[in-house]
Amino acid sequence: MRSSRFALQLHPSTPHAHPHTSAAASTSFLGLYYKLQHFWRAVAITYRGLQEAPPRAGHPSRSDAPPCAASSALPELEALAAVVHTRYACRRFDPQRKVPPPLLERLLRLTTRSPTGYNLQGYHLVVLEREADKQAACVACLGQRQVLDASHLVLFVADKECERNAPAALELGLDTTYYRSTLYGPSYLRQVYYYLHGGPANSMACLKRSVSEFYTSAVNRHHRTAKVALITVPESPTAYAWKQAMLACGLFLHLCTAARVQTSPLEGFDETALKHLIGLEEPGSARHRAAAAAHHNAKDANRYTIPVVVCVGYAAAGEGAAQHVYSPRFAPSHFIRWHRF
Ligand SMILES: Cc1cc2nc3c(=O)[nH]c(=O)nc-3n(C[C@H](O)[C@H](O)[C@H](O)COP(=O)(O)O)c2cc1C
């Protein structure tokens, strides 16, 4: 199960797991040692937190106006700003109100306009609406109520092997004349494979990372030469996959708000349980074999990863956008830094 602050909130008595913590150890010298270690860590974090406390914002409100004041000369920006200011994470949905499927379909299709690296489009949007599925998803989502009451759930499923889409993406780009520009040129495929293909146990990625780090530092040492640094190879296929899917998630949240549909993004869930629910199974597992025997198309659970689930629906009475207390944000100076970190 993915550990998250939400899991901790739901189980406040759950001790932080430590590989060496055990009931026996807690009464022993080792137990005392770990307790002291936790104590000092907590003191250090609190101290650091105080030192680095972000500047406090004024009282948050939906009308927080950016310094570049509203301009009627940019109506699209004003429309989008209004959407940004009204989106919120809805925790109480009206279980009776369903989002019309054609509307949801439109929002999902618009979401696919989200950009992805190399236009590889390595994510999928799995929609759940049946009661039984929502009940199972609710259990997987640590019992969070909004999962049950929402009209639909959208699971963002990211592909850790999105380089497999490269030939199709290239063909599509050529067919539609998109790649007629000099954007990528003939080295496109080679670059994509170099950049993305992790190889078995991510071994190629490690090798490429070392090569690119070595080459880049060499180039930096002699930066007067015309050489160009190598592209940074992603640390992990999962991180790369999440990066793409989360961008789409952000777009989806705002599209829903524009359509007066409320959303609730979730990261507090048991990813393996959700994968079972949508037919992503561990190859070689009994479930995978059973699915294959039943002629179901069981997909490889290892290839895919779920960074986020979005509950979609209409707010319960008394929870609508007008009545909602909006979440605060730190002062802009916490986020925005010009020129240097
Ligand atoms: C990636 C992500 C995961 C989240 N997971 C949960 C969750 O599991 N449960 C929950 O109640 N809220 C979850 N939230 C909602 C955040 O708590 C909420 O967005 C934040 O407090 C800011 O509030 P706002 O969205 O209303 O502006 C999540 C938000 C994001 C962006």
From TrEMBL:
Task: Return the annotated region ranges for Disordered.
Answer: 1-21
Matches recorded under InterPro entries: Nitroreductase (IPR029479), Nitroreductase-like (IPR000415), Nitroreductase_HadB/RutE (IPR050461)
Q: Where are the transmembrane segments?
A: none
Q: Which GO terms describe its molecular function?
A: oxidoreductase activity
Q: Which organism is it from?
A: Strigomonas culicis
From start to end residue, where is composition biased (Low complexity)? 11-21
Ranges for domain Nitroreductase come to 86-282
Coiled-coil intervals: none
Q: What is this protein called?
A: Nitroreductase
